[in-house]
Amino acid sequence: MVLGIGALLLGLTFGIPAWLFRDANRYDRLLRCFAVGDWKQAEKLIHALRSTTQPDSLRFDLDIREAMIQATHGNAAQALAGLEHWRSRLATSSPGLFEGRVASAYQAAGDYYALALVRDGRSDQAKKVLDRVAPILMAHGDELLLKMVQLEAGYRPATGKPASL
């Protein structure tokens, strides 16, 4: 009898906190999956986290992360279209949050042109410059990169010695 009560108390002492923190552990594992690119496991964890009641901030985060996974598979337009309902919900409470997180999905897709437009979405001038520069970069990007590397290799500060930390 005493042993049974002790086992019950032990279970309540350690079992309940473990049960309450299961979502935190799942989210931690999700972050680890994103760090190493384990998309299949990340999708499973997103599904598991969605099955429980979560605050809007976590639901938005899960939607963004799912869009990032879809973007890495080449479905960026479809994934990002599914996020539009969040724009109006976050506009007043967290201005800029939607655009900043959507930018991470563009980055995951490797669409750096769209990333630059989203990151500086308030500037029409930036859009005009990027519209003019993007075709040049697409046509001559390798040559420009080589020139930049050559310039950097030949650069010396005024002292004639490279800077050291």
Structural notes for this entry:
The protein has 9 helices and no strands. The protein is mostly helical and 165 residues long. It has 2 domains: 20-122; 123-154, no CATH class. Helix 2 runs antiparallel to helix 3 (39-50), helix 3 runs antiparallel to helix 4 (56-72) and helix 7 (97-109) runs antiparallel to helix 8. The termini are far apart.
Brief synopsis:
By secondary structure, the protein is mostly helical.
Q: Into which percent range does the helicity of residues fall?
A: over 70%
Beta-strand residue percentage: under 5%
In round numbers, the mean pLDDT is 74
> Which consecutive residue ranges, at least 5 long each, have pLDDT under 50?
none
**Cα-atom radius of gyration:** 24 Å
How many strands in all? 0
- Any idea what the shape is? elongated
Essential attributes:
165 residues, 2 domains
Secondary structure layout plus pairing:
Layout: H1 2-20, H2 22-36, H3 39-50, H4 56-72, H5 76-81, H6 84-91, H7 97-109, H8 112-119, H9 124-154
